[in-house]
Amino acid sequence: MDHAADANRTDLMTIMRFVLNEQSKHPESRGDFTILLSHIVLGCKFVCSAVNKAGLAKLIGLAGETNVQGEEQKKLDVLSNDVFVKALISSGRTCILVSEEDEEATFVEPSQRGRYVVVFDPLDGSSNIDCGVSIGTIFGIYMVKHSNEPTLDDVLQPGENMVAAGYCMYGSSCTFVLSTGVGVNGFTLDPSLGEFILTHPDIKIPKKGKIYSVNEGNAKNWDGPTAKYVEKCKFPKDGSSSKSLRYIGSMVADVHRTLLYGGIFLYPADKKSPNGKLRVLYEVFPMSFLMERAGGQAFTGKQRALELVPKNVHERSPIFLGSYDDVEEIKALYAAEVKE
Ligand SMILES: O=P(O)(O)OC[C@H]1O[C@](O)(COP(=O)(O)O)[C@@H](O)[C@@H]1O
Ligand SMILES: [Mg+2]
Ligand SMILES: [Mg+2]
């Protein structure tokens, strides 16, 4: 490494410096959010390190348990969940936690309680763990209404009430993407410093993209608008070029590529899964929040995704998210179906 050049990088913006700068814009702030975020970041670094040495440390394979969704839990799912639950509770800033891996919401003891609700998917893309393909962590943060008496209503809020959302992708590099409500910023972990550095300031998704991302193996069960949309991507009739298909099967990685390159990510409803597969609170909402803040859109097939009001913590929803113009097209197809 060129240390002289490194020393000259006076603009090195670490994620904590970034959040402290944001905090200073709100003189009334007590710094609670900054502390909460520092614990989430620490959890991500811990999981990143475990993911990197998974094959060596015998962390791949099944843990022998099944989670509430009936899915087999991988060892890394279990470990990541433990890491985030401990990191979040020990921040002293959380009140209620909802994890993909836990059946019920966790209400934090009054002595350790703070003002935030955190919903999270500790490890997204589990099916890609054993082959070393990109996986991630997704989170969304709400403010509790009354911290003295937290109830499930504090969790079952529409996504537009979130105060922040983000994800960390454990890929060829470890990337943390965050929105605290205005704009979206991306940070890359410098392993030699152990710090996330701002590398993707003010991310804006291209207005239209050249990529669609969907599990085409489910095509025989799709509804009309989804089938028509994918057909248009492959065989456009308006003279435009066809779109390329890219599908990793880890939402974090598929959404990250969509955010940076543009295009659309679809996990639609189908005849076998009328509510789709992805979970509203800790997959659909955080990613929809980020997409909208980056200038894109997120649609369920019926409505703007962030306006959904979940009725239970593990509820699922179809989701179409990405570039503004691409989502407009699928919205038009669903609107036309209603008129037919
Ligand atoms: O294999 P499929 O049905 O295409 O599903 C892929 C989707 O499932 C998920 O892996 C579900 O997430 P988990 O691994 O957290 O259960 C998403 O990341 C991804 O978008
Ligand atoms: Mg997931
Ligand atoms: Mg998961």
From TrEMBL:
- Keywords from the named record: Carbohydrate metabolism, Cytoplasm, Hydrolase, Magnesium, Metal-binding
Molecular function via GO: fructose 1,6-bisphosphate 1-phosphatase activity; metal ion binding
Q: Does the keyword Electron transport apply?
A: no
The Fructose-1-6-bisphosphatase class 1 C-terminal domain is annotated at 205-334
Is Isomerase found in the keyword set?
A: no
Main subcellular localization, coarse class? cytoplasm
What are the EC numbers?
3.1.3.11
Protein's name in the database? Fructose-1,6-bisphosphatase, cytosolic
Q: Which HAMAP family match?
A: FBPase_class1
PANTHER family from the entry? FRUCTOSE-1,6-BISPHOSPHATASE, CYTOSOLIC, FRUCTOSE-1,6-BISPHOSPHATASE-RELATED
Source superkingdom? Eukaryota
Q: Which Gene3D superfamilies match?
A: 3.40.190.80, Fructose-1,6-Bisphosphatase, subunit A, domain 1
Tell me its cofactors. Mg(2+)
Q: Which InterPro entries match?
A: FBPase_C_dom (IPR044015), FBPase_class-1 (IPR000146), FBPase_N (IPR033391), FBPtase (IPR028343), Fructose_bisphosphatase_AS (IPR020548)
